[in-house]
Design a protein that fits this description.
α1 runs antiparallel to α8, α4 packs antiparallel against α5 and α6 runs antiparallel to α7. The protein has a domain of about 150 residues. The protein has eight helices and no strands. It is about 80% helix and about 0% strand.
Length: about 220
């Protein structure tokens, strides 16, 4: 039993670090992933020329891998947060719901990254011809729509439930749980991108708090 507790504690501490890893990898993936700037985006022919550049294609594939690794780390973080919050009234049921929406966010975010990188990957690994500029731009827009609409809504519900449970258990500071409610509601406006950044920032701060406090699940008296 003691060995199991030590193992769970270690996994929990590592899970708190996974939240930080999610932010680092996810942001790095977005930075690495190349897209034409706003002036070029108006010219659909330049979208096709963009993906004919092998350097852009390689960077897009690397960026997609970083995003996928990041959201996998987020699933571990969400599991850790569920363990931390589940040993209270309603904690088990709501904790499971929180983890479900966190997993949905991760899955949709993965699909988003793969859709955005599909043209680059198909050309780089399968030598598939680059489609027209209109088609290439639409693929990029579909990827962003998946992330900033469907995934963001799941992220908002995840943060709202986590904030509710954290306030009941005291696992996170009161100011952070209050901010979590605001961040959760703002995900309805994530299509403007800035509210989605707030979600990533909330995960980073929550992870740092869990690392500093110790991320093992609270034990019943």
């Amino acid at each position: 039993m003691a060995t199991r507790d030590v193992s769970n504690d270690r996994a929990g501490r590592l899970g708190a670090w996974m939240g930080i890893a999610f932010v680092v990898l996810f942001v790095a993936g977005f930075i690495v992933f190349p897209t034409p700037n706003s002036s070029k985006a108006k010219d659909t022919a330049k979208w096709a020329a963009w993906w004919n550049d092998s350097g852009h294609r390689v960077a897009a594939v690397i960026g997609a891998y970083l995003v996928v690794l990041g959201v996998l780390a987020f699933v571990w973080f969400a599991w850790t947060l569920r363990r931390r919050l589940q040993d209270r009234d309603l904690g088990r049921d709501l904790g499971g719901l929180m983890f479900t929406f966190g997993s949905l966010f991760a899955g949709i975010a993965m699909v988003s990254a793969l859709v955005r990188a599909s043209i680059a990957g198909a050309k780089q690994f399968g030598n598939t011809p680059v489609p027209s500029g209109d088609f290439a731009r639409q693929f990029d827009q579909i990827g962003f729509a998946l992330l900033l609409v469907a995934a963001a809504l799941c992220a908002g519900i995840f943060v709202a439930i986590a904030s509710f449970l954290a306030r009941r258990t005291g696992a996170l500071p009161g100011w952070l749980t209050a901010a979590g409610y605001v961040v959760g509601v703002l995900q309805l406006l994530a299509s403007f991108f800035f509210p989605f950044i707030l979600f990533v920032l909330w995960v980073l701060i929550a992870s740092i708090v869990l690392v500093r406090r110790g991320s093992s699940a609270p034990r019943a008296a």
